[in-house]
Amino acid sequence: MLSLVSHNIWLLGLHLAAFFVIAMVCHGEPATRRPPVENLTEFYLYVSLGGVLGGLFVALVAPVIFSDIWEYPVMIAASCLLRPAASGGGAGPLRRDILLPGLVLVLLLGLLYFEHVPAPVVVGALILTALALLRFSERRWRFALGVSACLLVAQLATLQRTLETTRSFFGVYRVRLVDDGRIRVLQHGTTVHGAASTEPGQEAMPLGYYARDGAFGRFFSALAARPVQRVGVIGLGTGGLGCYARPGQSWVFHEIDPVVERLARDERFFHFLAECGASARIALGDARLTLQQAPDHFYDVLVIDAFSSDSIPIHLLTREALALYHRKLAPSGVTLFHISNRYLELVPVIAALAADAGAPARHLHYWPADPDSVAHLETEVVAVGEIGRNLDFLTADSGWEPMPLALRSALWTDQRSDIVSRIKWR
Q1: Which of 34, 97, 167, 291 gives 20 to 30 Å between its CA and that of 246?
Q2: pTM of the predicted model, to two decimals?
Q3: Which residue has the higher pLDDT, 311 or 205?
């Protein structure tokens, strides 16, 4: 995990540095070529119009015509064409402008698709590619095509063992095979929203965060002796939680993205809704709004499981949101917050919310025996009971622990939240 985080930090730094240089050059060139004073009004009008068109393309057009974040590599490659053309040329140089980047593409594709390539060969090929790009920079078309070849291979690498890639306003979703093809997962960015076995007869067995011996399995096992009739879940994923439904129970999934529902119902990939949650209802829309439509004191259990690629749905973790959950819960109801996150420590936030409301809370952090397998993922949850009740059914024998001392500074509201203080700097 530490190596993955370190790799992501270096990659983030590289992309930010490249984007900074591109942005500075692309803003600097119009400034140096600005027209005389009498034409500046028209000049700024065109600059503003370009910004509007670019924003519309990224926000509205790109999610429709691209199934992945293709506008970013296209922007990088296009920016390479903005450098002035080199003097000279002719048919020979033009052919080399196409042939040489083509050779780079063939080299990188070989590294991608040939298995068991020795590490020294990979390092040597990457160094050779970097030197080639440095030489290509003298000619803009050669440089643009060379950079395009590198970005294309990088995108293709993410598509290996990918069965489906689709995109919505909320991001890119991938259905992928992992663990040597034994498990099929739904990924949103770097977050696994559900995992299912590809073994015949095991397609409806919850895996990943929702494995039966994990945090969710222990929570629903503890609920078995309680009179639970209605369960609400904020966040659908693949619908794996639906396999914890018992006969006679009514389940409602509150999901903001219709694409997620489509993927969860696609039986080429996942069978949880078809085999476990066929009677579950899916309410599309933001949960803060769709929950308002439910009767007060309606749910016996609410599960808050609406993370997207490690980003935080802050409006679902505020004082006002918890008040809404309490209003929709039965007198002995329980809210379960799924707060697994690589980069943020959210236990203090829930502790502050529970203390502010005067509600009991319990914390469980599950560590799988095999951290390298997607079948069982490290999972962290917090259960918050109703005001004046207790959570004695969540016992220490099952791993449940008391909450830490609540800090007033960690309390989030609709008007104030401090995500920086919650970053795991270690």
Answers
A1: 291
A2: 0.84
A3: 205
